[in-house]
Design a protein that fits this description.
By secondary structure, this protein is α/β, with parallel strands linked by helices. Helix content is 51%, strand content 13%. It contains 15 helices and eight strands. A hairpin with a 2-residue loop joins strand 7 (318-323) and strand 8 (326-331). The protein is globular. The structure holds adenosine-5'-diphosphate and magnesium ion. The site of adenosine-5'-diphosphate has 18 residues, from helix 2 and helix 10.
């Protein structure tokens, strides 16, 4: 039944990016100057979870690196590497140009110098950028003349709100690329392509694909995980074809799997806040901060904590409630 199990996981890199031709074109155009050895246009990619933001960025930059000799790229997800030096070190490590620099104890200027001395143009893919603890990293990167920024975030307002006015005004001129949720038919195409790669013919009918697309409501990640679970369920019961009931019955387990996968990527301090709320269920902002300060080894600033909490909200792990008595936080994950 299963030909390539990886095809039905979100980590599988698809050959083809469906229904994003316009965005692929826009990002390629913004980065085109790099082929000639000059800096590209900075880009901010926005859109809800599961619409292909990360995949789009990686896809286009990979193509670019294939075509141009003097382009290097680095990727960092700020959910996992949220401090200034963690993020810079992750960027360099990913590009293969900073393996010798330790994330702890290396001054951030050393990372920046390393980038400046590269004899190539550098594309910095900074994912979930609004979770970055110290947005100064962006100004530091911005000041390196061979660095082109590709910033990825769900909500641009969150990103710009916390930046100092200098960086803010600079990013005003960045090119915006927005990705909407997929339409039903688009999501069906994406899911069908995964099915074709991953499963023997006849395992999943187009009706089943449509059912998964219905439930996923425009979010490709949810659709892919859901189908994967449904296939698993059918297989566990010794059947060679998947039914709509398999999809319906797999909903909870798919959502839980996505949730658990997100928890694993949290950085230490974010994890502390998550655990406090998971245990308590609901807390006032004041109580939450108090408990955090008790538990965290070296507590981060209130501003950083607000960013972490925003990340948790983003992943739908917690909910922020505003009531007469002030802000409260509620655990909502599995
Ligand atoms: N247009 C597309 N064509 C094929 N696969 C896609 C497409 N968009 C998203 N995916 C797949 O859906 C999953 C989620 O995409 P991702 O880029 O991580 O979303 P985001 O970063 O917006 O949350 C990934 O497994 C990705 O391969
Ligand atoms: Mg992403």
């Amino acid at each position: 039944v299963i030909r390539n199990a990886r095809a039905l996981t979100p980590d599988f890199v698809p050959e083809e990016l469906w229904h994003r031709d316009g965005q692929i074109g826009a990002l390629s155009a913004a980065l085109r100057p790099l082929v000639q050895g000059s800096r590209g246009t900075h880009v901010i990619i926005t859109g809800p979870s599961g619409v292909g933001k990360t995949t789009l960025a990686r896809h286009v930059v990979q193509e670019l690196e294939r075509k141009a000799f003097d382009v290097t790229s680095g990727y960092v997800n700020c959910i996992s590497d949220s401090t200034h030096s963690q993020a810079l070190s992750a960027l360099l490590r990913d590009s293969g140009r900073g393996a010798d620099l330790r994330p702890e104890g290396t001054p951030t200027s050393a990372f920046i110098d390393r980038l400046r001395r590269l004899d190539s143009q550098f594309v910095a893919l900074v994912d979930e950028v609004d979770i970055l603890e110290d947005p100064l990293m962006l100004s530091a990167l911005y000041d390196v003349s061979n660095v082109t920024l590709v910033l990825i975030t769900v909500n641009e307002d969150d990103l710009l709100a916390d930046l100092d006015s200098r960086v803010q005004s600079r990013l005003m001129s960045a090119q915006r690329i927005h990705l909407e949720k997929y339409h039903h038919a688009e999501l069906c195409d994406i899911l069908q392509a995964r099915v074709d790669v991953g499963l023997a013919p006849g395992t999943v009918s187009s009706l089943v694909v449509e059912r998964a697309a219905d439930i996923a409501a425009g979010d490709a990640r949810t659709g892919i995980v859901l189908l994967g679970r449904a296939v698993q369920r059918a297989q566990d019961e010794g059947r060679t074809s998947v039914t709509c009931a398999d999809v319906d019955e797999s909903r909870e387990s798919a959502l839980r799997a996505i949730h658990e996968r997100n928890v694993v990527t949290l950085s230490t301090h974010q994890r502390v806040l998550y655990e406090i709320l998971r245990e308590a269920g609901e807390l006032s902002a004041h109580e939450l901060h108090e408990r955090y300060e008790e538990l965290a080894g070296s507590p981060r600033s209130q501003r950083s904590r607000r960013r972490y909490l925003r990340g948790l909200e983003r992943y739908k792990m917690i909910r922020k409630l505003r009531s007469g008595g002030g802000t409260r936080y509620e655990f909502r994950g599995y």
